[in-house]
């Protein structure tokens, strides 16, 4: 996928897994990832789906954590 359109995601704390997050795509609400590092887990999943490593990703946390932004490549290196 050569689309470099920015991706926004919403991360919620996961009640079933302490210190973990469930991440949904902001535009459609589709669950995309789950993990302790929401940005890294989402970047990995988007890369697996064929998104370009230069794609900008922003993860907004709905539970009082600051938002995280960067490219997929940065998320994969985290």
Description:
The chain contains two helices and five strands, in the order βββαββα. The protein is globular. It has one domain (7-77). It has helices spanning 38-48, 72-77, and strands spanning 7-13, 21-25, 31-35, 56-61, 68-71. A hairpin with a 5-residue loop joins β2 and β3 (31-35). A five-stranded mixed sheet has the order 3-2-1-4-5. It has 78 residues and is of the alpha+beta class. The model has no long low-confidence stretch (mean pLDDT 93). The longest helix is centred in the middle third of the chain and has 11 residues, at 38-48. The two termini are 22 Å apart.
The helix fraction, in percent, is 10-25%
Rg to the nearest angstrom?
11 Å
Report the structural category. alpha+beta
| Count of folded domains | 1
Series of H and E elements: EEEHEEH
Q: Please summarize the sheet with the most strands.
A: 5 strands, mixed
Task: List its traits.
78 residues; alpha+beta; five-stranded mixed beta sheet
Quick overview:
The chain has 78 residues and is an alpha+beta fold. The protein contains two helices and five strands; from the N terminus they run βββαββα. It has a five-stranded mixed beta sheet with strand order 3-2-1-4-5.
Task: Summarize the topology.
Elements lengths: L6 E7 L7 E5 L5 E5 L2 H11 L7 E6 L6 E4 H6 L1
Parallel strand pairs: 1-4
Antiparallel strand pairs: 1-2, 2-3, 4-5
